[in-house]
Amino acid sequence: LSDTSLLTLYTNDSMAGVSCVLSEDQFLCSICLEVFTDPVTTPCGHSFCNICINKHWDNSLKSCLVCQTSYCPNHLTPHNTVPRLKKHQLIAPVENLEERICPEHERLLELFCRDHSQLICVQCSYSDHKSHNTVPLKEQCEEEQSELQQKIQERKEKIQELQRSVELSQENADREMKEGVEFFNDLMKLVQQSLDQFKQSIEQKHQEIKEKAEELMTEVESEISALEQRRAQMEEIWKSDDHFHFVQTFTSVKPAPEMNDWTEVSVRAPSYEGRVAIAVSELLITKLNPKIKELFDDELKQAKKHAVDVILDPDTAHPNLDVSQNYKQVQYMVRQTFLSDTPERFSKTLCVLGKQKFSSGKFYYEVQVKGKTIWYLGVAKESANRNMGSKYKTPQNGFWRMFAGNNHPYLCSALVKVGVFVDYEEGLMCYFNAETSALLCFFSDCCFTGNIIPLLCPGNDDKGNNTAPLILTPVNV
Questions:
Q1: Which of 111, 208, 255, 412 shows its CA 20 to 30 Å from the CA of 75?
Q2: Phi, psi for 122 (deg, rounded to 5)
Q3: Helix 137-238, helix 275-283: angle, nearest 10
């Protein structure tokens, strides 16, 4: 028996005291039909063996919430037959039934007040909890089960969503990997072809030198052979000590044959220096650059699909900046305009923000930088502190920008128009030369949060060299 408080144990003394008035049948357990062993009695008055009642209690005995007591099967019969009692609510046997009774009205706690998350009786619903959102306990149980099931279902769906994200990530990774491998394989093929051509040209040049040298060596060896033969003849006559015959023979009869003058003849061994640079230059100009440009052209084409019409917000402009009436141009002016100092306005750097705000997705805009020597472009978090110096405008402080200045002469002299592309979810920023499609700079793993806004800085006048404005231009898709 799990709830021993529901049973009253008989002591051996008490059994002895009533044995004289009880019949033998009354000493038998109605479950095992044997004499009681460790007898106990239920609140309804029946007695059983402790072991027997423990075995049957959970399945056969019930507690009535209306009568506020527990019954054995015999005493439970009226609740199953009498119409009035059949309406009583029976539950599995429990202890402390008094806890289910309203202490104030002594009625069954059969309602639940959702406003106060409190168990109440019917009388409570007409007094302290009048006009409150009250429901029967069964309805509350069903709703909590339904809410629990819904939470389980939501989490199962979340797992499916996460699994799908992983699958989608894998699909995208596989696709990009395939395209990347194909592209780099093509580049490696081009490089290998150029390497083969480079090696072939070196070997060919060396072969030419070798063949020329061998041709000359053959001629020299031929002359050596002729001279060797003449020397043998001279040695033969020389042995006779007849100087007259020697001179007569080799000066008059057999004068020395004509020989080549080899003094100025030579084969120059090339150093081959510069041929690597030439080969690489040819590779870049004729093969790699067109292939890479094709890639960048496609990337820029995709970026331009997300073009937005950015306009400037003059309320954010530094007092030394002049924003055009159409909100498309900004340039430095020496004379400062008197403007109210607000948290929205840049006060320490020559910056201005766009009016558009982005918190998701992709966007692209273009800016003309022709004729400028100092400038930077990018995005800034809407919540970033705008009263910080330039050196503090870092990603950690909510600023992402590409700077062009005197230490970037290429950017200053060669660029006409710059395209800025942002992928919010990917945390990616790319800067393109909008004229050539070349990728100038990029930032990955940008931790974008909240709203981000296009950022422009035309820089100071640089002693009159940087007076041209930054101009937001239409994007030709």
A1: 111
A2: -65, -40
A3: 140
Q: Which residue has the tokens 């002591």?
A: 11
Q: What is the pLDDT along the chain (477 residues), one digit of tens a residue?
A: 333 333 333 333 444 444 445 566 678 887 788 888 888 877 667 788 888 877 766 566 777 877 777 777 777 888 888 888 878 878 777 667 778 888 888 788 889 999 999 999 999 999 989 899 999 999 999 999 999 999 999 999 999 999 999 999 999 999 999 999 999 999 999 999 999 999 999 999 999 999 999 999 999 999 999 999 999 988 988 898 888 888 888 887 788 888 888 988 898 888 888 899 999 999 999 999 899 999 999 999 999 999 999 999 999 999 999 999 999 999 999 877 767 778 899 988 999 999 999 999 999 999 999 989 889 999 999 999 998 888 888 999 999 999 887 565 555 567 899 999 999 999 999 999 999 999 998 999 999 999 999 999 999 988 888 999 999 999 988
* Spatial separation of the C-alpha atoms in residues 197 and 279, rounded to whole Å: 8
Residue 409 sits at the vertex; the CA angle it makes with 405 and 413, to the nearest 5 degrees, is 100
Shortest CA distance to 460 belongs to which of 470, 451, 450, 452? 470
> Six-digit token pair at 255?
């004068």
Tell me the one-letter amino acid at 249.
T
The residue type found at 34 is: E
Other C-beta atoms within 10 Å of 52: how many? 21
Q: Are 312 and 330 in contact (CB under 8 A)?
A: yes
241: left (phi over 0), alpha (psi -120 to 50) or beta: left
What is the value of pTM for the model shown?
Answer: 0.62
Strands lying side by side in the sheet with 118-120: 118-120, 111-113, 134-136
